[in-house]
Amino acid sequence: MRFGAIGYLDRNDFSHWGVPPHWDDAAGYGAWMKEARRFRKALAEIGGGRAPRIVFEHPGEATIPTSVFVCAPGGMVVICAGTSGYSAMVDLRYQWVMQKRLQGSHGTNDEQARAYNDLVRAKRIDPALGEVVPFHEIGRAHHDMANGIEVFGNRVALVGAADADQGASP
Q1: What does pTM read for this prediction?
Q2: Which of 12, 80, 92, 148 is deepest in the core (most CB within 10 A)?
Q3: Which of the listed CATH numbers 3.30.420.40, 3.40.50.720, 3.40.640.10, 3.30.70.240 matches domain 11-104?
Q4: 54-57 and 154-157 as β-strands: parallel, antiparallel, unpaired?
């Protein structure tokens, strides 16, 4: 594919998720680390042998220790949410010694989302729509993306609308 993901890993194939055991549980920490290294190796194979310089972290508590571990030295972990919990623990050795950064990010709050939508409706922002599909064609759209069939711009699916103009402001 020219745009988008270059591969994926099924996290169910790995067993090290969550907070690593503390250092005084040498056996538990060793098992966690072995599995985290296996995950990092599988991720690097997808990335052409390189660790990712930017990791987008969404789940939070269940995955941030791994995200910091796999991120390249000098790289950044962008925290977008904490759906599995907000009390994330990180092995600071992999954070500060390797000069990795944590960066918070979010899309919008409700007020900002309304403002963005108003700008799109006023045609002051072009969302660069390449394809609008009815809800029942989502499977085909995903299949096309998986097979590298590109459209210029974003693909979007209509949810609860019969056509792309339904609900649009005059």
Answers
A1: 0.63
A2: 80
A3: 3.40.50.720
A4: unpaired
